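Mods, move this if it's the wrong board.
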Amino acid sequence: MCALSDDYFLINDIIRPSQWGRVNIDHTLLWKEGILVIETKNNIGEVKFFWDNWAFGFSPVYQAKGNVRYIQNLIEDSGILLLGSPIIEGLVVFPNAKLSFKGKPSIHVMNIAEVPSYLSGIKGGNEYSEDSILKIAKMIMESSRKSDYDEGGFLGILWQDFRDFFS
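Not the wrong board. Structure tokens:
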């Protein structure tokens, strides 16, 4: 396990709307070099990947790629950043599994021990300003709160009950 410096802004458990109902984004890491959208899986033992697929149903690679698209669309629609902005990419992390691969997945899939060196190796041409990072983080958290209400999450259910009681 590694500790992140204050140069990183980590948002956990973002709720977003999806065609399948509510979906969560496990972690989003923002820093001057880019944005990393992280899907974590707690499988133990050996986990085999066949390119982007695995044997346990819907692949976390596809889940991470969809979450990256969601974050990219939020940022593009907001107008906070210009074209040619720093990196936004997905990552799948397994804290407890031994990974094996037949073919290379389209995004990085790794054990948690590999994450620190992976982060230190990311070097974008452009950098996010501290102001942009804070604006993007605020926008992501607000979209999560909004989708929780809109999609009938726990808070949305309470709000609906509250509205119905006073109607």
